Amino acid sequence: MKGFPDLPPIWLVGFLILNWGLARAVPGNPGSAFLVLLSTSLVGLAFVLIFWSAWRFYHHKTTIEPHHKPKTLIVDGPFRVSRNPIYLAMALILLGAIIANGQPLGLILLPFFIGIITKRFIEPEEAMLRDAFGDQADQYLAATRRWI
Hints:
The mean pLDDT is 94. This protein has helices spanning 8-25, 33-59, 85-101, 109-143. The relative contact order is 0.18. It has 148 residues and is mainly α. The longest helix is centred in the last third of the chain and has 35 residues, at 109-143. The protein is elongated and about 50 Å long. α1 runs parallel beside α3 (85-101).
C-alpha cells in the first residue's frame, strides 16, 4: 500500500493480531500462573529494553527511525550484547503474547516475524552503518550478534 508507513511497530501489531486470531481459531490453554508470570516478565523485560535502547539513541543524538542515516554508531548499553535490542524486544513482546494465549501453535509466527524484520529493516540498516562508519561498523558487526 503506497504511503502506508513501513515501520517495525506496525509489523509487530500485525503479528500480534495474527496471534490473537490464531488463538481464537484454535484455542490453547492460557491462564496457568506460570504462563502468566512468564508472559508478563517477557513483556516487561521487552519494554525496559526498548526504553534503555531509545535512551541510548537520544543520548548519542542519532535517529531511532529505520531507513534514516545514523549520525553515530552506538556500541554501548544494550548494543554491547545485541546489534538490534529494540527488534529483540519486539520479538519478546510477540513471544510473551504467544505464551499468554497458551497456544503453542502461535510459535510458528516468531520466525516469520524475525525474518521479515531482518530483511526489511536490519539488513538495510547494517548496509547504512557500513556506508556511514566503514571499518568501525565492520568491526562492530563482526563482534556483536545480530539478535542475541
